[in-house]
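ingest -> fold -> write
write: protein_1
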Amino acid sequence: MPRVKGSPSKCIKSGNPSNPACSWLFLIKGDLVDQGGRPLDIVKLRHPASGETAMFLFSPNNETVQELITFSEDKRSWFIDDTVKQDGKLQLSTPFDPLFLVVPYLAKATATAPLEQLLHDEQFPETSRLLKCSGMQNLSVIADRKGDEDLNAYKFNEEKLMKWLEKKSEKVAEVLKSKNVHVLGGSLSATFVKSSADAVASKEAFMKYAHGIISEYLSEDLSAKLYQHLKLPPDETTSAKRKSVPASDQKDVKKIKLDDENVSEVSKGDALDLSKSEKSGERNEHKHD
């Protein structure tokens, strides 16, 4: 597993690996695992839904970004080599589409501006790393390029955004269905639970649940607009959102109970993998395992 590095005030240090009390345990998905020993960076960025601090993991050269989610449970510890780490938290990384992080900056801009200027955030200076992410080449699916190409200026396009989010929602719904995730009923579990019942959920039920997952990365206003765009019926139980870890303080994480089966399913990251970008006008396809 690659080394994770930090820098003062901007990144969270991983600590001395020889001292379990100062170490974190990571479960990293994807190509980040094979980086030839090059360090990965954990940085603080503005969460696209709440605007509060959230933790993300960047690959060397900032080409890809993954969301960090902390899973915690009472009375759990880790054996690391010949030592015991009493803090049993698990840091899980999942691929993440950087466009979700860009949406709030585009949406609040009152005029066309260069992308570098749009992503300038004094409170979260690491936001500039997004400029180098490979996913940024698809920015035209949520914004309109203005002026010369060298200017790299964009203006937010809400109609494009809704179409892009619709494709994201459809893909998540397909994954939920292929995994036989239980989406019927009111308030649902914070983890993905396979249905043991014979009830067959409709496409609408999967889309409503998918909308809840996607909405974890949208403002309330955009979440409501997406719900209307998806033409989902009014329902008091529509907030079937995945319970994410509070982003403002990693010391006060919400404790999510995981059994072995749920860890296996969640670690695959299928339903949470929001890194694959859907280009406007393209047919959405999903490959089953």
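write: protein_2
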Amino acid sequence: MLRDIPPVGIMSTEVTFENESDFAAAIAEVRNDASDVTYAFCGHVDGNPNVLGLLFKGTDNSEIASQMDSSQAMYGLARFETQVDMSTTVKFVYIRWMGDNIPFAKRGKFGVVGGSVDEKFSPYHVQVSTSSSDDLDTDKIIQMLMETAFTKSKVLESETDVSSRQMRGFTQTQLPQRNQKANFGVSAVASKGAGVDIQPDVYEGIARVREDTDAAKWMLAGYDGANPKGPVTCMGLGDGTLSDLQKSLDDSMPMYGLYRYEHTNAEGILTVKFVYIVWVGSQVKPMTKAKISTHKGAMEEIFCPAHVYVFATEVSEIDEAEIIEKIKQASS
């Protein structure tokens, strides 16, 4: 059953700082190899999505995990050192923390300004997006940094290396299996491609599909008027099955979807898995295909992490039985 999304108030997609100079000074310290300060974090002032303020900074990265607040969205930059080929290399990690206890409506609003927040911390070598303090273990982050140094990035092995290896059908990736809400993600520094205007209802739709207490099981976003220049808007939100999502696909338009699947693993534990769908209908013009290819990074940043990736030009390529099998393989 397709449901309308409740109206979303118009809000800015940009963030500003309560005190820009304080933030700039803290980030400068983190980026200065001679400084003892190795990390700095900011958060939303009084819960305002459009205003950030410096929260704290420190000199010991092992303290970061203990300072995360499950009721807040927090963003930070940390400096790490890795040993590569007998030499010490400085790496920067951007951490985006979304606490589990943030109300889903507010989480959607924070998502609207996510792109603007990310720009404030660029450049960096690895991005960690999480709600679990386990993902902020220093040894784990250093391991990820080492892997990217040897062109063995978790991104390329999992969520975002979809163009270089992409064939018809889909590939899958297994996320950490700590619990059903695991959402660890890393992103190596790379070009995000061309920007595209993404409407707030897209972020809210995604937030509702990811929210355990919401009935929404899937959402679809597409280009308004089938114009690849955008904006991208939410075109469907439903509480039904994958077949309901399939019925909402448009052959003349590129679309992006997120599908929530609940799966009981071999240990009898109920887990939630997410499927990211990229749809390029058979009637989409070649010029449109070329244009949207530049939006790949921006869209993955919004829809990922996901356990299974599906690229399809025909409805038959979005096969539920095959998706379920891939999910089971990833969970075994």
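write: annotation protein_2
The CA atoms of residues 67 and 325 lie 39 Å apart.
The chain has two domains: 16-152, 193-331.
pipeline exit 0
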